[in-house]
Amino acid sequence: MFWVAVAGPSGAGKDTLLDAVRAELAGDARFHFARRSVTRTATPGGEAHESLSPEAFEATLAAGGFLLHWRAHGLGYGIRHAEAPAGRVVVLSLSRAVLNQAARLRPLQVVEVTASPAILAERLARRGREDAASIEARLAREMPLPEGLAVIRVENDGPVAEGASRLRAALEAVAASCIQGGFPP
To answer: Rounded to whole angstroms, how far apart are CA atoms 127 and 122?
Structure first.
């Protein structure tokens, strides 16, 4: 089993690209797209996640129900054990803060989805979750990827179809490498 961690700054379009590629690869047994558990109510057009109350999240965490977990932006995030089945390329949307932990658990390829600062700011503003000052502060807190990880960079400044094509190509490269017995691509 190999993991592909899709990571990058808020507003880069990770969820949008993942949704598009998940739909394109539906039925492809090589891939499993892990669903995250998040202490945020699901909203139309947002990430298709398992919504947990903070209490349910803490109870799941205490019971050892998460393979990986982290906190970011006032929310709890987790990946349940069942979301990482053996024998498949598991695609996970992860925080940069847990990439090293993930790499210690399984062979890991990171796909960093990124966009220009102007595009990030525009997308964050469109979400309507934060005011301009909060968006500016978020963008100023650049968090680089940890050293020593295998990284493929996907630029997502243009149309969704272009970014999705780049992400799909990265996933296909990982799957092909796994079949050939090597990792990372």
So the answer is: 9
Q: Would you say 38 and 49 are in contact if contact means Cβ atoms under 8 Å apart?
A: yes
Q: How far apart are CA 60 and CA 146, in angstroms?
A: 27
- Which among 31, 49, 32 is positioned nearest to 40, based on CA atoms? 49
Task: Assess contact for 91 and 18: CB atoms under 8 A.
Answer: yes
CB 108 within 8 Å of CB 102? yes
Considering the entire predicted model, what is its pTM?
0.86
The enclosing H or E element of 5 equals strand 2-7
Closest alpha carbon to 19 in 44, 53, 52: 44
Over the stretch 78-99, which tens digit does the pLDDT of each residue have?
999 999 998 899 999 999 999 9
Output the CA–CA distances (angstroms, integers) from residue 60 to 50, 55, 72, 92, 104, in the order listed: 12, 9, 17, 19, 22
Tallying the residues shown for the chain, one arrives at 185
- What the block records as the tokens of 12 is 């880069």
